Amino acid sequence: MFIVIINSKKCKGCGLCIQACPKQCISYSKQFNKIGYHWAVMIKKDACTGCSFCYMVCPDICIKIYEKAN
Amino acid sequence: MRKVFSKPKSLKSVVFSYCPGCGHGIVHRLVAECIDELKLRESTIAVAPVGCAVFTSDYFNFDITEAPHGRAPAVATGIKRTNYDKFVFTYQGDGDIAAIGIAEIIHAANRSENITVIFVNNANYGMTGGQMAPTTLIGQVTKTTPFGRDPKKEGYPIKLCEILAILEGTTYLERVSIHNPLNIVKAKQAIKKAFQCQINKMGFSMVEILSSCPTDWSMTPIEAIKWIDEKFIKCFPLGMIKNKL
Known about the structure:
The complex is a heterodimer of chains A (about 70) and B (about 240).
Chain A: E1 2-6, H1 16-20, E2 26-28, E3 40-42, H2 53-57, E4 63-67
Antiparallel strand pairs in A: 1-4, 2-3
Chain B: E1 2-5, H1 24-37, E2 44-48, H2 56-59, E3 63-66, H3 72-82, E4 87-93, H4 94-100, H5 102-110, E5 116-121, E6 124-125, E7 131-132, H6 151-154, H7 160-165, E8 170-177, H8 181-199, E9 204-210, H9 214-217, H10 221-235, E10 239-243
Helix pairs in contact in B: 1-8, 4-5
């Protein structure tokens, strides 16, 4: 199982990871962060396949991916 | 838990000053990952340009110096000739390398200086507010070409890789893009090959990276990467331009 951690303080809400995710796991948050953007949040944690597309397209490098043994 | 993907060690954990969706962040990560993988962090000296990437010294975790506008290849020449055991690369935008600095890049390439150039092409002058650059496409609307670039008045886009390819001094020239994950992987491979070219003392190498500038193109980040796919790549075809490795 893969765990995607998105840094809400650094995310600028560009939406590239939302568009790149093949399983549509990521969406925008409802609140604003300190720098004034809707940051990206994981909404379907179980559907993630660990493809790392979100990490690759993130221009602010605020995504970390961990693998957890079942 | 095993960490699969996270920020490379050659990048500091600060918030970039770039606009949302800007391609510079992705190029920074690719360069930092290649430096980490080749274990060059302790021996790297980079030369920063004038442009949006002027603050790269705040983001990269290795030695960086600043050059006057467009003169990064000349500064890198001096650094490399005096510190020949160091790894030297320049990071330049299209306004820096293809407009004011085109003489420096052509002569550095012609002398076959053993340096690497990372050329980020976003088809306009990003930092100053989106004016026309030499690489602006025909018909593209910018702040100084409000009716689109007209070749009769403003000329044609400069393809720097093709210009440098006819010089005997160049060793490795490739044009890549970062508009989707597949092309990002290809871009990383190209940067790594260019770095390897310098490590093996093979001469001048350059990677041109087509990048997005959503704010100055007046698009959303997603529209911007679609524009790269539909129009930018048609004018600047991707692929290997020259490889003497």
